[in-house]
Design goal:
Pfam families: DUF7547. By secondary structure, this protein is mostly helical. The protein has one domain. The protein is built from six helices and two strands. It is elongated.
Length: about 240
């Protein structure tokens, strides 16, 4: 069974990262166009290219938020019981594994976003949030790896050993990224269903940060459905923003 204080620290870091990613999404809202027609400058063209790239990165942020909030639920369930059941511990480990997979892609997305926001007006806040997110991401991934038994091979989201990727990073090729994305999405859906089916799921203590309105499941309904990755501007997701 994992150390309780370690899980509490991890839960706090996860909460901080979810909040930071939400704030980052707000900062990445497209800026209003300047008034009046004029010829675009080279800076305008670079900014346009950045705005085109940003939605793809935001989809990765959304996937990470889904995974992290499921990890929050799994950690709270284990923390809320005197002795975590075998099923609860397995779900916690699956949630950690899925989160580690998405966190590896998140770092690449945050690096891409740092390049994308350069040159945007008033981008200081976004740059600061990006730095915070990268630090939190690295710390969470480090703690997840430290708490996971090292059997010499990383685990894919479906639990199979994957010895070809010791650092947990997704294949840079497009086909590899697509396969990883599908696997992670399917695993997140599976974890959510299993969490919902637990008899004590509704009694899971909240993290006290206000994201879940006092109900262990309330904050996940809008983040874990199949449509959450379809569009970061989905109205069902906006109600959970800080």
């Amino acid at each position: 069974m994992a150390d309780d204080s370690s899980d509490e620290d991890l839960a706090r870091l996860v909460t901080d990262l979810v909040r930071t990613l939400r704030e980052l999404e707000d900062e990445l809202e497209p800026p209003r166009p300047d008034e009046g027609p004029r010829l675009p400058t080279p800076r305008d063209l670079r900014r346009f290219a950045s705005e085109v790239a940003i939605p793809g990165f935001i989809l990765i942020l959304e996937t990470n938020i889904r995974a992290l909030r499921l990890l929050q639920r799994a950690l709270r369930l284990a923390d809320g019981a005197e002795t975590a059941s075998r099923e609860t511990e397995q779900l916690r480990e699956r949630a950690k594994s899925a989160s580690e997979s998405t966190l590896s892609r998140l770092d690449e997305a945050l690096v891409g976003l740092q390049d994308a926001v350069e040159g945007r007006p008033n981008d200081d806040e976004a740059a600061e949030l990006l730095d915070d997110a990268r630090e939190l991401r690295a710390e969470i991934q480090r703690r997840i790896r430290e708490s996971t038994p090292d059997d010499g091979a990383t685990r894919s989201p479906d639990g199979d050993a994957d010895e070809s990727s010791g650092d947990g990073r997704a294949d840079a090729d497009g086909d590899g990224d697509d396969a990883v994305s599908v696997d992670v999405d399917a695993e997140l859906e599976s974890i959510k269903r299993d969490l919902d089916d637990l008899p004590d799921a509704d009694d899971a203590p909240t993290d006290g940060e206000g994201e879940e309105s006092g109900n262990g499941d309330a904050g996940d309904k809008s983040d874990d459905g199949p449509s959450s990755d379809a569009s970061p501007d989905d109205g069902s997701d906006g109600s959970n923003r800080e």
